[in-house]
Structures are given as C-alpha cells and as structure tokens.
C-alpha cells in the first residue's frame, strides 16, 4: 500500500514538473536562436556597408611614383588632357596612372597632378588629385590583346573579367537586400524557417563577392603582363579592395548562422512536439 502511494506521488510530481521543464527548454532554445540571428544580422549589415564602401571608393589599386611632379612637368598639361579625353584608350590612361600616383576603382580613375601644371612652371610640391568616372559604355568596352592597338584583336579573358567585376558587386548587394526582405517577412510571420532562404541568399552573395575579388586580381595581373610597371613605379592593392575581401567571409558567416538557426530550431521543435504528444 505504501509503495503504491509513493509511486503515485512520484508520478504526480513529474507530471506537475514536466510542463515547466519543456517551457524552460523552449525559452533556452529561443534565446539561443535569437542570439544567433542577431549576430547574423550584425554581420550582414557590416558586410553590406563594407561592400558598398568598396564599390563607391577609388582605391582598389594604387600606383606609387617616386616623383610625380617632375613626371607631369616634363609633359605639361598633355597628360591630364589625354587622361580626361573621351577618346582615351586603356594604354593612354594606364600610362598616366603609372606616372602620376594613380588610383583605380570600379567606377573612377584618379591621378595626382600639380595644381599649376603649365609647361613654363617649375616643378611643384603642392599636388591635387583629379578623377574621371568610367562611363557605362566604358564598363562594357572590349579589351584588346595589345592595349591601345585596336587592330590586335579582342582579349576575351580581360573583357569578361572587366565586365564581371562591374556586375558582381551589384548582384551581391541585390541578393543581400532580397535576403533581408525575406528575413523581415519571417519576423512578421514569427517563424525561423524562412531564415534558411536568407542564409542561402547570403551564401550566394558571398560567392559573388569572392568572384568579384578574384576577377579584379586576375584582371590586374593580365593587364600588367601587357603593360609592365616602370622601374620607378610600385603598384599595390588599396583599402577599397581590402574592404571587399573582408566582406566576403562576413557574408559566409552570416549565411552559416541563418541556416543553422533555422534548421536546428525546426528540428528541435519537431522533437519537442513529438515528446509532448508522447
């Protein structure tokens, strides 16, 4: 009799405690997944800012010349006039970049020249940076096997690398914005499952950003094979390029967190539901 009463009391104690344990477990899971989603959103925001900043700045590649003022003074204003000319071909503006501490971005090219660069003026140390934008047609213009020689034939590798480095960053940002829209819809529906789509879109955006970096590096290397750097010129990748390099792994990490949170939450919710039914 005493054994029966003790067993019934033990069963009643567990029956009373079971809803509280499942609620605590659910709250713990919710906090864990919410933390993962917050971190993923922060990573996504940072990567978007970095990528947007890299697209809008002109320091993807930098050329450093020992004496840009003397180089410009030797040729007078002809360098700047050729640089800004609508008919300037790839070889013309690349030579100007070599000689005048040039920087190149995805949308603009810049050179450093003296404020007063007349042929009769002595070399100056007071320099200014002047930039000119690539037009939309410039982004899709054909690259030639010998830069500047239109009769040398089309260099398909450099042509498509240049076009891809223009298109891929916009595809990447577009994918991330679409993923953010899906995330907002998931919040409105109070469901984590759509976060899988957000994670997949961030992963694809990371691939596009990584492809952008690879295309730019390959394009620069192929260009320098055609037009080698002069002995007194040093070239290096700039901080705009570094921002794009940092953006790609941030997108991959955000994608991993979104997918992990959605899949794990759905799996544990299914197990918890089965446990309650049992």
Automatic annotation (TrEMBL):
Transmembrane segments: 33-53, 166-188, 200-219, 239-262
One Pfam family matching this protein: Claudin_2
UniProt-annotated location(s): Membrane
Keyword hit for Transmembrane: yes
InterPro entries the record matches: CLDN1, PMP22/EMP/MP20/Claudin
GO cellular component assignments: membrane
Domain of life according to the entry: Eukaryota
Protein name: Claudin domain containing 1
Keywords annotated in UniProt: Membrane, Transmembrane, Transmembrane helix
Membrane topology classification: Multi-pass membrane protein
């Amino acid at each position: 009799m005493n054994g029966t009463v003790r067993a019934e009391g033990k069963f009643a104690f567990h029956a009373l405690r079971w809803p509280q344990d499942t609620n605590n477990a659910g709250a713990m899971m919710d906090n864990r997944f919410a933390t993962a989603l917050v971190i993923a959103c922060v990573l996504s925001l940072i990567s978007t800012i970095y990528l947007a900043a890299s697209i809008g700045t002109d320091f993807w590649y930098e050329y450093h010349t020992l004496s840009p003022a003397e180089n410009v003074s030797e040729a007078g204003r002809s360098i700047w006039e050729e640089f800004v000319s609508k008919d300037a071909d790839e070889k013309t503006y690349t030579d100007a970049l070599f000689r005048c501490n040039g920087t190149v971005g995805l949308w603009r090219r810049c050179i450093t020249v003296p404020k007063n660069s007349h042929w009769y003026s002595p070399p100056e140390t007071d320099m200014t940076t002047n930039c000119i934008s690539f037009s939309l047609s410039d982004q899709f213009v054909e690259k030639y096997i010998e830069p500047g020689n239109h009769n040398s034939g089309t260099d398909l590798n450099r042509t498509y690398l240049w076009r891809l480095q223009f298109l891929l960053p916009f595809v990447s940002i577009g994918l991330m914005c679409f993923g953010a829209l899906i995330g907002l819809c998931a919040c409105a529906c109070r469901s984590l499952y759509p976060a899988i789509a957000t994670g997949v879109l961030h992963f694809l955006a990371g691939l596009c950003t990584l492809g952008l970096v690879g295309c730019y590096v390959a394009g620069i290397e192929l260009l320098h094979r055609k037009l080698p750097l002069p002995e007194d010129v040093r070239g290096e990748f700039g901080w705009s390029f570094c921002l794009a390099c940092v953006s790609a792994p941030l997108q991959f990490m955000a994608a991993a967190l979104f997918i992990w949170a959605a899949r794990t939450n759905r799996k544990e919710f299914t197990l918890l539901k089965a446990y309650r039914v049992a």
